Amino acid sequence: MERCLEIYERIKERGQAAIEEFIADRRSEDLFLDFKRSSDDGNGNRLSNNDRKNLAKAISGFGNSEGGVIVWGVDCSIDVDGADVAHTEVFINNPTRFSSLLQGVISGCTVPPHSGVENYVINVDEDRGFVVTLIPKSNWAPHQMLPDKKYLIRAGSDFIPTPHDVLAGMFGRRPQPHVFHQYILAVPELRGNELYITFGLAIHNEGPGIASDIFCTCLMQYLPGNNSQMRFETPGQANWTGSFEFWRQASLISAPGYRLPPGANVQPLIIHLSLIPPFDGVLKISGTVGSGESRRYEFLIEKDAHDIQQHYDLFVHKTANNSFTEGEKHDIAMAIVGDNDA
Questions:
Q1: Separation CA 231–CA 165 (nearest Å)
Q2: pTM
């Protein structure tokens, strides 16, 4: 998981407690984290010029670097080392409105706009709280902030002008692909006492460039019981080469000349999972996807015996009562094979 996304998800999960921890620890701003207080504490009916400028700087600087997070509603102070550290909560009034104001100006903050920016509201009480802004690394860099027409990057705890050689490289490089995995689930079935789940490991190219040398690996580390089984299937074998190590691991790479255009999907691997009681262990499946021009993503499916037993029993119960929709079956299967953070 990218560092900025890890910070963002942790703040979302823990809410105000995460921000209070930053302040208690006097957490310093760094490559991935920035603290801001609103110039009008969120009282305006429009985003203040100062807040808009800070947002534009962050979108350009974080987007042109490795991504980052802004926590709105925290005042910083200089510590003995000269670093900006989280000092005091300065709540945003009506944080939902403030988030909406931020969202409304994102597209006009940079050229080109950064479509991956999102905001999350943390309410402390009915009228006050924080807003957290995620700015991922952009596939469309470089981003020029407006109206100052500057190209920025993140360096330490500051946003600085992009050095000429770095900027030249950004303009000169070919559009890059951005590939990551998705799951495509078939409708699960109950075959006697066997819960049969089939899902495809699909690779999606979200970036503006064409992907080649696409790869995926999948390792079955543990099955939840001696009766359970898993096997691989490779559709479109002409487009893939690789190996299978016993029945536990698949390692595939796209054939020379095979390319994945922007916005397209390919499914190199189908996983057939047969879950049969008793369940006395963990289900653990891990793997990677990527391409020659794109970063590698890891995935992890990990569920303990108790979770699997609960979902298995629910599937059996609903099947026996003949009250099962395909959507509900899909939800139970996804609860079992849904991705954990790797």
A1: 49
A2: 0.68
